[in-house]
Design brief:
This protein is of the alpha/beta class. It folds into two domains: 2-57 and 352-409, Urease, subunit C, domain 1 (Roll); 59-347, Alpha-Beta Barrel (TIM Barrel). The protein is built from 15 helices and 17 strands. The strands form three sheets. Strands 1, 2, 3, 4, 5, 14, 15, 16 and 17 form a nine-stranded mixed beta sheet that branches. Strands 6-7-8-9 form a four-stranded parallel beta sheet. The protein has a four-stranded parallel beta sheet with strand order 10-11-12-13. Strand 15 and strand 16 form a beta hairpin. Helix 11 crosses helix 12, helix 11 crosses helix 14 (380-387) and helix 12 packs across helix 14. The radius of gyration is 21 Å and the shape is globular. Zn(2+) binds at residues 63, 65, 211, 299. This is 5-methylthioadenosine/S-adenosylhomocysteine deaminase. Belongs to the metallo-dependent hydrolases superfamily. MTA/SAH deaminase family. Substrate binds at residues 92, 144, 184, 214, 299.
């Protein structure tokens, strides 16, 4: 289907001209083919009126655990390691593949409602997450979470699972699915096992998605065990020899930051989750000023407790000003970049998504700014970072297909998903 979005303000995320006040966007199939004045020579099947609306690239949630929506609001106000070991991991051990399927569907619905068109997920039963991704019409990078166990055969099986996931799903669903390798963290995988993970990533010619330096405790234990920080440890093992998405990077030193820059690692900032779990605040402004590609994520819906990327953008653009006593830290446009083009670069997808340009895939969200909290329309870039709410997302287009219009999702039965998640979550918690 060919689409025209007419008379719309456009935040393209292009360096030379990020914002156009009034323009028209033509989409043929899954691709943006023309931006500018109305072109009568281009035939379209549908016209979307963009008057008093902003079109922007779909948001990219670069680190999450979608299946954890079943555990939302289950274990809160608990320190991270207690949260994991005493509450989350015991329940996760009882999760079934169908639980993860329905939980992931719910998370995808929530993301679409709030303008996210692409995610990077780390969890298990990832074939079910892939199935949900295909059905909903969203775009995703899937990584099977790998935690080393005492049984060598189980550890080999986890690597085989990843290879099978890659061979089955990479570039499938009209190209909307990619697969990377997902070692959980340097404290849950030994150096020798991480080296096997790296070899698998090289074999598959894909990237690595891993948690790095999330807490002070993690860093302290790394120095006790390895005599170096997690960042230095991962570099020395060779993890950073392949493209790496490094979730969190909260407790990183100046030396660590230089390594991240040198090795072209993409840290993912998760401000709400890091704050709620009392992990601390990543030195985002410092990393950005070093030219490091910092992306943005929500983390899982059990630690956040939502998947609202506009909330993360707002937090990223405000809290760093207070932390640095600098009103210029992480400006509005920089926060929006973290949630769009920087995320695309982290996911090795920036040639196709992350900005609205001719030749790129049509992953576009349309924001309704005809609401009291948007008036007056002084600065639309500031408005998207400091004013916009998830509920302002009116239309979501992914790969050229209208997935949501007038806040109605067209690809999935939302009521059915909510019913099934509620039922399964109550049964799951009851198993304790």
């Amino acid at each position: 289907m060919n689409l025209l979005i007419k008379n719309v303000a456009l935040l393209s995320m292009k360096e030379e001209q990020p914002l156009m006040e009034n323009t028209n966007i033509y989409i043929e199939g899954d691709t943006i083919t023309y931006i500018g004045e109305i072109n009568p020579d281009i035939k379209v099947d549908r016209v979307i009126d963009g008057t008093k609306k902003i079109a922007m690239p779909g948001l990219i949630n670069a680190h999450t655990h979608l299946g954890m929506s079943l555990l939302r609001n289950y274990a809160d106000d608990v320190p991270l390691f207690d949260w994991l070991s005493k509450h989350i991991w015991p329940v996760e051990s009882k999760l079934s593949a169908e639980d993860v399927y329905w939980g992931s569907l719910l998370s995808m619905i929530e993301m679409i409602y709030s303008g996210t068109t692409t995610f990077c997920d780390m969890y298990f039963f990832m074939d079910k997450v892939a199935k949900a991704t295909e059905e909903v019409g969203i775009r995703g990078v899937l990584t099977r979470g790998i935690i080393e166990e005492s049984d060598a055969e189980i550890n080999k099986e986890k690597l085989r699972d990843t290879r099978k996931l890659y061979n089955t799903w990479h570039n499938k669903a009209d190209g909307r699915i990619k697969v990377m390798v997902g070692p959980h963290a340097p404290y849950t995988c030994s150096p020798s096992y991480l080296k096997e993970v790296v070899e698998l990533a090289k074999e598959l010619n894909t990237g690595i998605h891993i948690h790095v330096s999330e807490t002070k405790k993690e860093v302290e234990e790394s120095f006790q065990k390895h005599g170096k920080s997690p960042v230095k440890h991962l570099k020395d093992i060779g993890v950073f020899d392949v493209p790496t998405i490094a979730a969190h990077c909260v407790h990183v030193s100046d030396e660590d930051i230089e390594i991240l820059k040198e090795m072209k690692v993409s840290p993912v900032y998760n401000p709400t989750s890091n704050a709620k779990l009392a992990s601390g605040f990543a030195p985002v402004d410092q990393m950005l000023k070093k030219g490091i590609n910092v992306a943005l994520g929500t983390d899982g819906p059990a630690s956040n407790n939502n998947l609202n990327m506009f909330e993360e953008i707002h937090f990223a653009a405000t809290i760093n000003k207070a932390l640095n006593y600098d009103a210029l830290a992480v400006p509005a446009l920089e926060a929006l970049k973290m949630a769009t083009i920087n995320g695309a670069k982290a996911l090795l997808w920036d040639k196709e998504i992350g900005s609205i340009e001719v030749g790129k895939k049509a992953d576009i969200v349309i924001i309704d700014i005809d609401k009291p909290h948007f008036y007056p329309h002084h600065n639309l870039i500031s408005a998207l970072a400091y004013t916009a709410q998830a509920s302002d997302v009116d239309t979501v287009i992914i790969n050229g297909k209208i997935i949501m219009e007038n806040r109605e999702i067209k690809t999935v039965d939302v009521e059915k998903v909510m019913y099934n998640v509620e039922k399964r979550a109550k049964e799951l918690i009851g198993k304790e």
